Q: What sequence folds into this?
């Protein structure tokens, strides 16, 4: 029997991967092609449903340990969570795991909404102090999945709003440029065919940051390109956006090669060389989805005809 719990949607980080760790801007949006919800069943669970139930049990155990150590960021009714798990609750999700679109973020958002004793309501947190507190709280709850979480993914999934991060303390909901449904330009996703592994990718990145030269480039050149892309996109300056996107795509190709699936290196470089499209990481990389931008989506589709492009926004 299906429960009537709310739906939680996927998210896409358009700009800011890795950069938000070092205080550059970020822009993340909900992605309604994928969704998830809690379901309680009185029937025998399928193997997939059982795996979800077992995963919830492990997460609940983690939260209980955090609670016992006084490390939980909010008061939670974990006894009810445990009882529901024993009663065969599972998380029914179409959000692919390891693809950079917020599978763990949706789960954390759902757990917080259902089991936090005094949750900050989405209607109370579109901006201001509650927004910052909520992001920090959800980040601590998501640490179980990624080792260290910014809290952005579960925040987007919880609010179901586009969020602009200016720095670690200044962030809030933002309006997206109006979509032109028949527009020539588009933002799209390419499925790499394999999941990524966020923890290992973040570990590689943190190791790279120990190199003084890379750290300087990252905090200057990448931050400048990333922040300029966000500003151009939000004000609808597509000429400026694509100029900066080329630089951003080139930076990732030159300095984040380990995060780019090897079979996509050629088309990544071809995009930069031909200016028909530009690719960038979607999340931590290493697999999952790759994010693309094209001034003329038909030209990009023809050039990338061996890959299925999932269009997420037209302009």
A:
């Amino acid at each position: 029997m299906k429960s009537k719990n709310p739906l939680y949607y996927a998210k896409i980080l358009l700009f800011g991967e890795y950069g938000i760790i070092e205080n550059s801007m970020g822009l993340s949006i909900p992605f309604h092609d994928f969704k998830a919800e809690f379901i309680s069943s009185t029937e025998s669970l399928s193997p997939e449903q059982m795996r979800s139930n077992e995963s919830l049990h492990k997460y609940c155990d983690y939260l209980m340990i955090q609670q016992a150590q006084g490390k939980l960021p909010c008061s939670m009714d974990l006894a009810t969570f445990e009882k529901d798990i024993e009663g065969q609750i599972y998380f029914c999700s179409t959000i692919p795991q390891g693809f950079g679109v917020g599978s763990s973020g949706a789960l954390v958002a759902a757990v917080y909404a259902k089991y936090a004793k005094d949750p900050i309501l989405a209607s109370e947190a579109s901006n201001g102090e509650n927004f910052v507190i909520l992001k920090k709280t959800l980040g601590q709850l998501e640490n179980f999945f990624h080792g260290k979480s910014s809290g952005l993914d579960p925040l987007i999934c919880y609010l179901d709003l586009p969020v602009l991060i200016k720095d670690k303390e200044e962030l809030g909901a933002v309006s997206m440029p109006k979509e032109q449904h028949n527009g020539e330009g588009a933002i799209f996703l390419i499925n790499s065919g394999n999941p990524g592994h966020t923890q290992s990718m973040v570990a590689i990145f943190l190791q790279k940051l120990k190199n003084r030269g890379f750290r300087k480039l990252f905090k200057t050149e990448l931050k400048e390109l990333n922040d300029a892309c966000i500003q151009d996109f939000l004000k609808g300056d597509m000429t400026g956006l694509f100029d900066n996107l080329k630089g951003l795509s080139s930076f990732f190709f030159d300095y984040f090669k380990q995060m780019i699936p090897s079979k996509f290196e050629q088309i990544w470089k071809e995009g930069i060389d031909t200016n028909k499209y530009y690719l960038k990481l979607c999340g931590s990389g290493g697999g999952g989805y790759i994010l693309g931008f094209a001034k003329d989506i038909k030209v990009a589709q023809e050039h990338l005809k061996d890959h299925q492009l999932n269009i997420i926004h037209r302009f």
